[in-house]
Design goal:
alpha/beta
């Protein structure tokens, strides 16, 4: 049997059994004994604390183990219930699907039966219809054959004669129409070309009165118009050869002919004037002038402006040639300058400025015409109202007022 451990506080007070005097253990004869008891008490307290700590840890482990076991039991119960519910739901769902499948099978069987009946009925109706159509067709064909045999016997001879006569008339008419069309196209093209050529000559003469504008006679080689550029002193500065084409499509052979004509008349530059429908295919939309194979190609609306720029270039080259007389410069300098990219860029810049001015002028013209039209309508409305008022007054006054002389022009 283990002896009980005695634990006393240092300040504990005791009573003497003889004299009944009360004193603390720290006083008197018990000091040394208390020191021993205190040390023993400290060891006992440490052991007691360790024992209590071990007991608390053991109780905590027991509680934790109990909680884990309770959670495991609860989780097993939840899993069991979930498994039972899932199985029950799956069983109910499977029963529902089986019922739906059985219903669908019945409906499918019924639909197949009805479809088979409809096919049989449709086939029967089709057979009856085909039989009826065949019978009607046989009767119609028989009647048509009889009628055709009668008509064919009556019309065969007459048709042969009429056909021969009609064919003869058609051949004659086709020949006449082809000849008339050829003459009309030839005359129309010639007339259109002559109109464009005359317009070019008139524009050059009006814009450049100092130059000599020569018309190339029909049947002669050398383009359509020769412009001999002259300075204010009357000195010859260069020659421009103009060729006009009014066609539907571009023709590359025009350039070769114009270059040959340029060599024939010793022209410094050649210009081909055409319409917007007959421009080189490689040109982008809106392009109105450019150099193609060393020949200027320009549309009619900007031809006179191009003539002014080319003329200025020839005059500049002429001034340089006069200033550098005796230095051995040849006519190739004029040709190189006129056909150079720098001169083309300058010319395009000038033409762009002219084009913008023309667009602004057309816009102002359109606005002015619109204002005139509005004012004319207002005048007409006021005039009509005035005539109406005069007529009403004259009708009311009758002979009491002089005759109003109001009438529309």
């Amino acid at each position: 049997m283990t002896a009980a451990t005695l634990v006393l506080e240092p300040h504990a007070r005791v009573t003497c059994p003889k004299c009944e005097h009360e004193f603390s253990l720290e006083q008197g004869f018990a000091r040394h004994a208390l020191e021993g008891i205190e040390a023993a008490s400290a060891d006992a307290l440490a052991q007691l604390r360790d024992a209590e700590r071990l007991a608390a840890d053991k109780r905590a482990q027991q509680r934790e183990q109990q909680q884990q076991e309770a959670q495991a039991r609860a989780l097993d119960e939840v899993r069991r219930q979930a498994t039972e519910q899932t199985a029950q739901a799956s069983r109910l769902q499977l029963e529902g699907l089986q019922k739906q499948f059985a219903t669908a099978q019945e409906q499918l069987t019924q639909l197949r039966s009805e479809q088979l009946q409809l096919r049989e009925e449709r086939q029967r109706l089709k057979d009856e219809k085909d039989s009826l159509q065949l019978e009607v067709r046989k009767q119609v064909d028989s009647q048509l054959a009889q009628r055709e045999s009668l008509v064919r016997a009556q019309e065969q001879e007459r048709n042969s004669l009429d056909k021969a006569e009609l064919q003869k008339k058609l051949d004659d008419m086709a020949t006449q129409m082809a000849e008339m069309q050829r003459k009309a196209e030839q005359g129309s093209q010639q007339l259109q070309g002559e109109v464009l050529e005359l317009a070019l000559e008139e524009g050059l003469r009006r814009s450049f009165p100092l130059d000599v504008i020569e018309e190339v006679k029909k049947g002669q080689r050398g383009g359509d118009v020769i412009q001999r550029v002259q300075s204010r002193s009357g000195a010859a500065a260069g020659v421009l050869l103009w060729e006009t084409k009014r066609a539907a499509v571009w023709n590359q052979q025009w350039l070769a002919k114009l270059k040959e004509d340029m060599r024939g008349c010793s022209a410094d530059a050649g210009v081909l004037v055409t319409t917007v429908t007959a421009l080189p295919k490689e040109w982008s939309a809106g392009t109105q002038l450019g150099v193609v194979d060393d020949v200027w190609v320009v549309t009619w609306p900007v031809a006179v402006q191009l003539a002014g720029v080319l003329r200025s270039g020839l005059l500049d080259v002429h001034k340089q040639r006069v200033a550098s007389a005796g230095k051995g410069e040849k006519m190739e300098a004029v040709y190189d300058y006129v056909t150079s990219p720098q001169f083309a860029q300058k010319l395009k810049a000038v033409m762009d400025a002219f084009q913008r001015m023309r667009e602004e002028l057309e816009a102002e013209k359109s606005q002015t015409m619109q204002r005139w039209a509005r004012r004319e309508k207002q005048l007409e409305a006021g005039k009509a109202a005035l005539l109406g008022v005069g007529g009403e007054i004259q009708g009311l006054a009758q002979q009491h007022l002089p005759q109003l002389e109001l009438q529309g022009e």
